[in-house]
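Protein Entry — a single chain follows
Next Lines — sequence and tokenised fold
***
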Amino acid sequence: MSTTKAALTALSLAQRAEIIKLARLCRVEDDSLAWLGKLEAPLIRALREQATAAMFDADRKRFTNMAAASRLLPVPILVLIIERFIGPLLCARVCGLVPAARAIEIAEKLKLPFLVDACIELDPRSAQELIGKFPLRLVVAIARELAGRGEYVTMGRFIDLIALDAIRPVVDAITDDAKLLHIAFFAESTERLGDIVARIAPERLQAVVSHAATGSSELWAEALALISGVDVALQQKLAAITGELPESALNNIVKNTQAIGRWDVLLPIVARMDQRQQKRVINLPVIQDDTIFADIVRAVFRLPDIRPVILLLTQLQAGARSKLDGVAKHIGLTLPDPALLLPLIGGR
């Protein structure tokens, strides 16, 4: 792995998502912007929004004039001109400036591959009304084509814009569980991410979590971003699904979490499981490793609120807890005594 690629992997999940989206906007390789990891995710997002404005507002007057002129032509002739001479990039720039009803009338007559090419180039700021009014069959067709192309950044951008009643049909149309996780990773809004998860059928949700748990470290990183990005109630639901996975899947989660260095994300999720699940996960033999224990201790001290995780660690069996404390002492850290924190946490 190159130094820049490693630097990108070492960033927080939110930073990685923002850098990848900015790289896509600028049409450069993801790792070429890894140096932006010195900034927090909200600042990278603000930079991306400024870059979006600069790119899409250039020549806006010319595109506005083109949009006005397009109203003079019958739709069939306009579609012919668009597909043969204008192309998807200019079509997208003008489309956002045309009244939504007119744009949809044109979109319904464009060939699907061309329409998807244009959707990739759309200005998300001016496309909100347009995408929200697209007919359901067209939304599903576009989503299926985008997913087939691996256009996850585009889908994450527009998932915020489609009507709520289109979410379930779109999810059902994308049969590959890994692709759903890729899309969720790039969702712009955590609130809409919750809307998506809430509308996924329970059996499909279980399949998605299981697929992430048994997959690669990269896929598991995206699953962690999904789980940690929704509200508390949905976090508990997803944590409960995770806690019931077979031990082989849980072992893979431990391996992948260690590989990506994200115990600070996983531990609060495990803390949302019930006591039986907590005890099962935290006492997995694969966790009883000095290196993993050391990284867990370091992660605890990076959390804004360590109390739920300290309570989680009380579920460790006596021998494992003694080993954890020994590892903590070896690296110069001391975990708080749970007995002192229980009154503050409220116990269980």
